Amino acid sequence: MSTGTTKLDVVVSDVVPVNDLVTRFHFRRRDGELLPTFSGGAHVVVEMRDGGRTRLNPYSLMGSPLDTSEYTISVRRDDVGRGGSLFMHRNVRPGLEMVISYPVNLFSLDLRAKKHLMLAGGIGITPFMAQTAQLAAEGGNFELHYTCRTASLGTYADVLRERYDRRIRLYHDDREERIELDRLLSTQPLGTHLYVCGPAGMINWVRDRAAALGWPPETVHFEHFAAPQPGLPFDVTLAVSGKTIRVDEQQSLLEAIEAAGVDPPYLCRGGVCGQCETNVISHDGKFIHNDHWLSEEDHRSGCKIMPCVSRFEGKSLVLER
Amino acid sequence: MGITFRKETFRDDFTFRNSPEHIRRFPFPFHEDAYMYAVNIEPHVVGPKGSVLENLIDVDEHYVAEMQDRALVLAEDPLRCQSLPHMTLAGWDLLELLMEQQSLGYPEHFTLTRDGDRWRWINRPLGIDDTFTFGDTSTLPYGPMEYITRQSQGDFCILDQRDGNLWMDAGMVTTQADWSLDFDIGMNFFEWHAPVPLAHEKGIFIRALKFLTNIQQGKPARRLNWTMTVNPRLDTSPENYHKWGPDRATVTPENVGDKVHLRVELQSFWRLPRSNGIVFPIRCYLIKMDELLTQPKWARRLHRVIRDLPDELANYKGLTRYRPTLVEWLSKLDDGSATSPGFGPD
Questions:
Q1: What are the tens digits of pLDDT across the range B110-162?
Q2: Any chain B CB within 8 A of the CB of A252?
């Protein structure tokens, strides 16, 4: 199977609708044992057998790291997406046996922080569910600002308010409530670390303002919920495995490579971890690098690509894989 | 059947010896007749029965004596064990890992029972039977890292991962080959490797760091490293250089076999689940030349490796002073015949 991470055989123990868009899924181990311990901010990759095709989507673990009798994830339905979230919503029922990866954390708390300032947008709330649980258990100092479209789409806002009261601040787009970001960022005590998870626009806004206001980059942590972007189909030759394959509009390059029977390493499937980095042997065309791993220099060189999120437009592309 | 623990010393009268079974299980580090750096990292999975890889955390006949030596080192110099304030959670992670692995591998010597957060740990070789609350430091006589690493062979570096780098922010280091936790604590991966010659030019550290920061929970990795030590000392620290440094001048053609030891470190790398840190156990194995020569393949090959070692490396490993004497002695064990592939003895 995959070279990504160690796998866990689980059974879906519960499926709970949370609101119009979000459903929560509970997993337990098939052998009845405890699941591995994890840390706040970790994700698992869920394998979905969708007809003849295997979908692999990463989702943040949102339960308390102190309770490993089950894992919980929340999936926001995306009606125009690539189909993974729709599969989860339509096909996954209690009792279904599934395979998920071991937890991987690419959005870890910095435990040196004197205070953790968290900013969430929409479904970007999920990693903070586990992080706040972890910090609350240790008496850690945190404050969470959460923006959502409407009160009814404020996933777990009620749970968070009940658990943490004034440490949680809510903002609703339909009431035109906005985070007063500059004021928030310029009034934090020294030693505060900033964490942001949400849409790309929000992450960029927060990172830019933090940089402009003098926050050191190592105190600003962010997690993209980046799914691979669709695009024009293209053909790729894999030099080592000697295969020529087509990448469909809705398929990522990594998925196409896997579908061809090649087993490349991966962890995040979102362009941040670096595991699937692949050498480009030759190309005639243009790369659409959507990753956050390679340097600008790497992007310009045309010598490397991250197949989990990046695409290509042009005549020919040969990768080492 | 349990392990028979040896009574022996790593200082003063140096009574350390390997039993014949332990000579055969020694992790000889050279798979060919020459040595150069490589990123020789592989998955840390269970190996053949009877080898040092039979369990992922190895306990052997030197266990009790090594733990006594560690206690002596700490009594003289408590700074060999340090943990920055944000690393306590990682210490609990390490305590869990070592208790689990030791009790799994050696149930006749170690027992861990858990009732929620109430844990009981029995260590029969050291006569310990403690009940404590997991996560509550006040229920242990030491911090969690110090408590468990006073009961585990090898050194332990706990690395915090942040900003795409690894930071040596905690550790128990008493059996090291001439480096110091007190000096390196708080440094990042590139800073603490700065003194290593040749490897920077080869880009080895950049690749190694990428690999290590991607180590996953449930998928530990390992590598072997080696050096040589005169007399079977575990503690060859910079702080005690005045004690062991002069030993290098005492090697003569008559005493090479007894004094000169090959020192092999089995380094493993584990992702810690709660803290998301990495722990880096460095397990030290010593074998004296007289023990090594009982395996003719190893003696032949070691002759060729030491003879042909680049001067920078010989210097870095501190062999320069006695290398000619050692090579001359080993040459008599090398009949020029071919060595078989692989690490093991013939």
A1: 999 999 899 999 999 999 999 999 999 999 999 999 999 999 999 999 999 99
A2: no
> Is A39's CB within 8 Å of B274's CB?
yes
Chain B within 8 Å of A295 (Cβ-Cβ)? no
Confidence (pTM): 0.90
B130 contacts B140 by C-beta, under 8 angstroms: yes
Q: Which residues of B are the active-site residues?
A: 223
CB contact under 8 A, B218 and A5: yes
Pairing of strands B42-43, B221-230: antiparallel
Question: What whole-number distance in Å separates Cα of residue B86 and Cα of residue B286?
Answer: 34
The CA-CA-CA angle for residues B115, B116, B122, to 5°, reads 45
Cβ-proximal residues to B253 (8 Å cutoff; 6+ apart), any chain:
B325, B328, B329
Please state the length of chain A.
321
Dump pLDDT digits (tens) for A187-212: 999 999 999 999 999 999 999 999 99
Neighboring chain B residues of A6 at a CB cutoff of 8 Å: 216-219
pLDDT at residue A317 is higher than 60: yes
pLDDT in tens, A144-158: 999 999 999 999 999
Q: Cα-flanking dihedrals φ and ψ of residue A161, to 5°?
A: -60, -40
Asked whether A63 and A72 are in contact (CB, 8 A), the reply is yes
> Is B86 in contact with A39 (Cβ distance < 8 A)?
no
Ordered alpha helix ranges (H), B14-171? 20-24, 63-76, 88-105, 144-149
Give the Cα separation of A266 and B214 in Å (integer): 10
Count of all residues that appear for chain B in the document: 346
Count how many Cα atoms sit within 13 Å of the Cα of residue A2 in the half-sphere of its side chain.
Answer: 26
CB atoms within 10 A of CB A267: 21
B221: number of CA atoms within 13 Å, CB side?
A: 16
- Which DSSP symbol is given to B339? P
Chain A residues within an 8 Å CB radius of B274: 37-39, 65
Question: What is the per-residue burial (b if ≥16 Cβ within 10 Å, else e) of A284-312?
Answer: eeebebbbbbbeeebbeeeebbbbbbbbb
Task: Sort strands B278-288 and B260-271 into parallel, antiparallel or unpaired.
Answer: antiparallel
Whether residue B276 and residue A267 make contact (CB cut-off 8 A), yes or no, is: no
Q: Which residues of B touch A109 (CB under 8 A)?
A: 276
ipTM metric: 0.85
Q: Tens digits of per-residue pLDDT, A92-141? A: 999 999 999 999 999 999 999 999 999 999 999 999 999 999 999 989 99
d(CA A111, nearest CA chain B) in Å: 5
Distances (CA, A) of A82 to A13, A245, A268, B163: 25, 19, 17, 31
Characterize B219-241 residue by residue with b for buried, 16 or more Cβ atoms within 10 angstroms of its Cβ, and e for exposed: bbbbbbebbbbbbbbbbbbebbe
Arithmetic mean of pLDDT, A11-26: 97
Query: Would you give the DSSP letter of residue A40?
Result: T
Look at residue A225 in the predicted model and tell me its pLDDT. 63
Distances (CA, A) of A290 to A81, A230, A267: 17, 11, 16
Inspect the interface and report whether the beta carbons of B214 and A267 lie closer than 8 Å. yes
